[in-house]
Amino acid sequence: MIKKLVLALTLLFCSNFYAQIKFEKAYFIDNNNIKIECFIKNFDWKNNPTHFEFKKNETDGEITTKTVKEVKEFSIEEGNRYISQNIAVDTSSVDIRSYSNKVDPEWAQKQLFLKEIIAGDYSLYEYADSNMKLYFFKPKDGNIEQLIYKKYLINYNDVKENNTFRRQLLKAKPESITMERIAKINYNLKSITDYFLEINNIDGKNVVVRNSYTKNLKDKFLFNFKLGTNFSSLSLERNPQSSLNPDVSFENKNTIKVGFEVEYVFPFNKNKWAIYFEPTYQTKYQSETKVTRVTPGGWNYPPETWSASYNALDLNFGLRYYMFVSPKSKLFANLGYVFCPTINKELGNVTENEKYKIVPSSKFIIGLGYNYNKKYSLEARYGSTNILDDYGGTIQSKFKTFSFVFGYTIFETNKK
């Protein structure tokens, strides 16, 4: 039954996973300045793309690819706008292990798609690649250029900063902006964007702020209450196994789990990725079973009673992926790592007064679930672990748990 449920949920996850990235209404302008209305596959890119895929209309089966060298710009309706630029880019390493000892940028000419953040008299663009983020600006009647910020080394271990970008921003300094204001600008999206919004709004002129920018500035934390029921089973496997040394299987038991979850939703790929931490308390798993040993000659020993009593805290750290079904409904999949410090623990052969040591354990879990209205969730979850101490491989345990977990979002925070 459990295997069938896991298989069904996995198939549901896979089918929805491939349906998430859609072709959306868009346009691009080719190198001949011809504007093409189309539908572009919207990956809501975390890193700037080097190409995009499009269809002429929603029902068109033919998919075409355009690269950064083939177009001047492309834009997705209610989404990002990218412009193609052949531009000088600082290629200095941002990895502290590979910092340069040169104070000046290490320029290279590259053809890039730059993401438009703000369009106005003073425009702002972003380029992201792996863990590197660069910002570019275009002053009134000027050309696009990179805002220079670089960390470098002196004497091999002394890290210094090249903050030339502040001097560059003097080109975009209206008279009402003070030098003290310029000095407070940091090289990050929020700080630079706040400044560009400020200087563009001074004259009351129109300024375009991309929706994706507003979304990207949000750090989203969710605080969720969790209540669930576990269907747990415990088995002991002998090595070598024989009629005189049989495996031991305890009954499936139902237990309760209760706790809370802190979830952080990443501000890219349409808020589909999240990480979470979920500590929960598990009520006691308690079971007895009878085991009969049989001699090679077929003679049965009297049945022996085995007893197990176990409960623990589950400290669950994991990764979550959301799949949107409708504005109010979404599916999600979890992959978690759980550390299980024990609270009560007894295991052994009561008849023979044989006791086995239960130790703190860990396990991987998978979960698939449904969230409604960003408030309520229901998840099916499965995991298995060995809770016994090391007995040289002569005996091992399998503590398997299939859970249904209800979640309720108490509150969420969005920080700009």
Distance between the termini: 46 Å
Total domains: 2
The percentage helix is: 10-25%
**Beta content:** over 45%
Name of the level-1 CATH class of the largest domain: Mainly Beta
How many H/I helices? 5
Mean pLDDT: 88
Molecular shape: elongated
Q: Write down the oligomeric state.
A: single chain
CATH topology name of the largest domain: Porin
- Main beta sheet: 11 strands, antiparallel
The total strand number stands at 25
**Which structural category do the helix and sheet elements fall into?**
mainly beta
Radius of gyration: 30 Å
Reported CATH architecture of the largest domain: Beta Barrel
Please supply descriptive tags for the structure shown above.
53% strand, mainly beta, 5 helices, 416 residues, 2 domains, 8-stranded antiparallel barrel, 11-stranded antiparallel beta sheet, Porin
Question: What does this protein look like?
Answer:
This protein starts with a helix and ends with a strand. Strands 1, 2, 3, 4, 5, 6, 7, 8, 9, 10 and 13 form an eleven-stranded antiparallel β-sheet that branches. The protein has an eight-stranded antiparallel barrel with strand order 14-16-17-19-20-23-24-25. Strands 11-12 form a two-stranded antiparallel ribbon. The chain has helices at 2-17, 164-168, 179-183, 189-200, 211-216; strands at 23-30, 35-41, 51-55, 64-67, 71-76, 81-90, 107-119, 123-129, 132-138, 145-147, 150-154, 158-162, 208-209, 219-238, 248-249, 253-265, 273-282, 285-291, 304-326, 329-340, 342-349, 354-355, 361-372, 376-385, 395-415. It contains five helices and 25 strands. Strand 9 (132-138) and strand 10 (145-147) form a beta hairpin. The protein is elongated. The chain has two domains: 86-216, no CATH class; 219-415, Porin. Helix content is 11%, strand content 53%. It is mostly beta strands and 416 residues long.
